[in-house]
Amino acid sequence: MNCLSNAEAHVAQAVLIAAAAKSPVHRLLASVGLVQPPSLVARDARTVAFLRELDLDPVGVLGQKAVAEAGRWVPQASTATTLGSLLPIGSQSRLITQ
Known about the structure:
This protein is mostly helical. The protein contains 6 helices and no strands. Helix 2 (40-53) crosses helix 4. The longest helix has 27 residues, at 6-32. It is flat, with a radius of gyration of 20 Å. The relative contact order is 0.07. The model has no long low-confidence stretch (mean pLDDT 79).
């Protein structure tokens, strides 16, 4: 029983390849200076927030030092994120009629 068409299989393969290549490509571009290098503290801050949402203790998972650094970390606001935060999301920009 074939559940996927050939086109769907090719799209799925392309998505998997892109997901696998994302991190090495980002590191390569960062080494050339085209993008910012990945921030370990930013990753830890997201992990701490995620663990707290699950009502888990992040200190037991990441350690006290990583949790303390993540607590002091403040994301750098870029022009793109600042501009993006000023624009309404799609559901707020549409006219709602009833």
